[in-house]
Write a structure and sequence with these properties.
The strands form six sheets. Strands 12, 13, 14, 15, 16, 17, 18 and 19 form an eight-stranded mixed beta sheet that branches. Strands 1, 2, 3, 4, 5, 6 and 11 form a seven-stranded mixed beta sheet that branches. The longest helix is centred in the C-terminal third of the chain and has 23 residues. α8 runs antiparallel to α10. This protein has three domains: 244 residues, von Willebrand factor, type A domain (Rossmann fold, 3-Layer(aba) Sandwich), CATH 3.40.50.410; 115 residues, no CATH class; 197 residues, Cathepsin B, Chain A (Alpha-Beta Complex), CATH 3.90.70.10. 40% of the residues lie in helices and 15% in strands. InterPro entries: Papain-like_cys_pep_sf, vWFA_dom_sf. It comes from Owenia fusiformis (Polychaete worm).
């Protein structure tokens, strides 16, 4: 195993064996949430309730590995089970709703007549006598009629319980008693007896309809089972109501989802029971190697005690992120804490205590350039605990939560010792992909990963080989079309106490998490290269998807031209790679693709282990490593306030106020452009992290 300076030593950092993720989302929809944060669903303030869908969508959208899974549990339904499978409940309810809409083309009279016929055959032979058609036509809406017919046609449990629990006894089998016969006779003669006439009124029919609606909603809730866990594509299709490229949830779609769940929410708060249910889902053998995340959105007031199954969740390596919802003022809402504040109320302290800690090594570096966010790193760690008092903050929190799990970068920690200009600007600005000799690009990318691998060794004995010398050696070894790149890299690694191996995407992401850039190869036809180049010319910071370039449509005999780049980072949306075509190409020399299959990416990792180090290098790390890591964290934390003097106008501005590209920035005072190339430069670090967060 390997890593970089910021951890401890290559081979010591604890990371997950697989990068596939299982995300559990617990959303508090209980009455206490309504009481504490307000926002009834029928009022403008209902944006709080609507934000639950933003949470679900924000945590599951996109899937780089195609192996990520998710489950979403609702906490606090009005009916049993109060704990329910939110995603499958939405799926079931909307499927039923779609069928109901199709039935609305039928006349309401015809639908009601069929309902009565079904009830007559299922224990209510006198229902037509009790409920006259003219009364039903005036009381039951078209939507309700379609819904009842659907439930009666498709659910034997609903048929039985509707007759037993919602209809009065006058609709059912008559008791063969003298009293019953007497009443029956009076009824048929149009007579009147105590209790008979009132069941035929509109109020009586409305009462039965209301009971039936409540029963229908109760039976629409889907309990928790292994089926609650699904891949993120399926979950996204349920939320978006369609199949295809993920887009943001529209207001119209959120309103549809709100109408779907509105009848179910605002019950009790069995948060502890829901967390225990999540343990059973995380424990499934098929997810043993998954990185596991539990995101809890709640007001911190469980109705079933304060004994969460933290030990059980820890046994399955579940990382817990707690988002505390309140309607009260928050002194510092955009802050991650290492220690709980004494001024917090009990619910906030409870949620903080449940949240997991994350070491500074694993904090996504992009957080440090997000405006307004402060991060405590006392004891080299911080809690994954967020406080939210406005629905507009939900999206920001979800973004940060996702990044904690699926956003890693391999270069930011090394910018103190290398300049990216070295690797990016290796060709003319008018570089053409098709005109590139394969051996030049392979040599550039190979030399970059070799150079960066050795730069990760503190106090390397013999110093650090020059990048251009490494590239020349690669070219001299005849890396060109038809040459096995892995074999040539293996030869190079032997001379520098390094190792290399081919790997799949999951292992490549694991390498990035350990701060190791990875060599990437891919091959395209002439036509595909045209599409590739045109896309990034029009969308420099865009994400290439299959709809933009589909290599599966190429002919099997088509000639392809190979290329090599360096995988440097990833997040939940895309893979980000460094090219060598100049800083004016795409996004400052970097480009993004949705996943590895888009270009048919192949990965080669270059690394070293602790056994490869000389004793002097081990000693150097022990002596210098902690101070270098501390200096890096100080630089990261200081980015919000760090100043930089413009070389053009000599005026100082905050580094976060500079705009532009990775290696070419614009001064906020004079609007002049200048290059930034110096290693260890706060401005270069800021521009790099800002480019990551696009």
């Amino acid at each position: 195993m390997v890593t970089s300076l910021g951890a401890s030593m290559e081979g010591k950092i604890v990371i997950y064996q697989e990068m596939a993720t299982l995300t559990g989302i617990l959303v508090d929809v209980s009455e206490s949430m309504e009481r504490n944060i307000g926002g009834p669903v029928d009022e403008e303030g209902g944006s709080w309730a609507r934000s639950i869908f933003k949470v679900l969508d924000g945590l599951i959208k996109h899937d780089v590995t195609k192996k990520n899974h998710v489950f979403g549990l609702g906490v606090g339904a009005r009916y049993e089970p109060q704990v329910f499978d939110m995603l499958n409940t939405i799926k079931k309810a909307q499927s039923e709703s779609s069928a109901n809409r199709q039935r609305r083309s039928l006349s309401k009279w015809g639908i009601l007549n069929e309902i009565l016929s079904i009830l007559e055959r299922n224990g209510a032979p006198r229902v037509r006598t009790w409920a006259k058609m003219n009364v039903l036509m005036s009381v039951v809406t078209d939507t309700e009629a379609s819904m009842f017919l659907g439930k009666l046609l498709n659910g034997s449990d609903f048929r039985r319980r509707f007759v037993d629990e919602c209809l009065p006894k006058e609709c059912k089998e008559l008791e063969r008693s003298l009293r019953s016969y007497g009443k029956e006779g009076l009824f048929f003669m149009g007579g009147y007896f105590d209790g008979a006439q009132e069941y035929a009124t509109k109020d009586a029919v409305q009462k039965a309809v209301d009971k039936g609606k409540k029963l229908a909603h109760e039976l629409s809730l889907v309990g928790i089972s292994p089926a609650a866990v699904m891949n993120v594509q399926k979950a996204s299709e349920i939320l978006h109501g369609s199949i295809g490229e993920e887009e943001e949830l529209t207001k119209h779609r959120v309103d549809e989802l709100m109408e779907t769940v509105k009848p179910f929410i605002y019950g009790g708060t069995p948060l502890m029971r829901t967390m225990k249910e999540s343990v059973s889902l995380f424990s499934k053998p098929e997810f043993k190697q998954h990185h596991k995340l539990l995101f809890i959105l709640s007001d911190g007031e469980p109705g079933d005690g304060y004994n969460p199954p933290l030990r059980e969740l820890s046994n399955y390596d579940v990382t817990i992120i707690c988002c505390y919802i309140t309607n009260k003022a928050i002194a510092d809402p955009r802050r991650l804490y290492s220690v709980a504040s004494e001024c917090w109320e009990k619910p906030a302290k409870f949620m903080f205590k449940m949240s997991s800690t994350i070491t500074t090594q694993m904090i996504p570096r992009t957080i440090f350039v997000k405006r307004g966010w402060n991060i405590d790193i006392e004891n080299n760690e911080t809690h994954l605990f967020f406080q939210v008092n406005h629905p507009d903050m939900i999206e920001d929190v979800c973004d940060l939560a996702r990044n904690v799990v699926c956003c890693q970068d391999s270069l930011s920690d090394m910018l103190a010792s290398v300049s990216l200009d070295l690797y990016i600007n290796q060709v003319n600005q008018d570089f053409s992909a098709k005109g590139n000799k394969e051996r030049a690009c392979y040599a550039n990318a190979s030399a970059a990963v070799l150079h960066l691998a050795m730069k990760r060794i503190v106090g390397r004995e013999g110093g650090y080989p020059d990048f251009f010398d490494l590239r020349k050696q690669m070219i001299d070894k005849n890396i060109e079309k038809g040459v096995n790149v892995l074999r040539v890299l293996e030869e190079m690694c032997l001379g520098y106490r390094l190792h290399c191996e081919k790997m799949d995407l999951l292992k490549a992401l694991k390498a990035i998490t350990a701060k190791r850039p990875v060599l990437v190869q891919f091959r395209l036809t002439d036509h595909e290269w045209d599409l590739f180049s045109d896309f990034y010319k029009k969308h420099p910071d865009g994400i290439l998807t299959k709809s933009d370039l589909n290599i599966t449509q190429r002919s099997y005999v088509a000639e392809v031209i190979g290329h090599a780049v360096v995988l440097t980072s990833y997040n939940g949306e895309c893979l980000r790679m460094m090219n060598s075509w100049g800083s004016d190409w795409a996004d400052g020399g970097f480009f993004r693709v949705r996943d590895a299959d888009i270009l048919g990416l192949e990965f080669i990792d270059v690394k070293w282990t602790q056994d490869d180090l000389k004793q002097s290098e081990i000693d150097a790390y022990k002596q210098q490593g902690p101070s270098l890591a501390s200096k890096l964290m100080s630089s990261l934390k200081g980015l919000q306030t760090a100043m930089y003097k413009c070389p053009l106008c000599s005026k100082e501005s905050k580094v976060v106020d500079y705009k532009g590209k990775l290696l070419r920035v614009v001064c906020p005072c004079c609007n002049g452009w200048f290059k930034t190339k110096e290693a260890g430069d706060d401005l270069a670090l800021n521009m790099y992290l800002t480019s990551l967060s696009h």
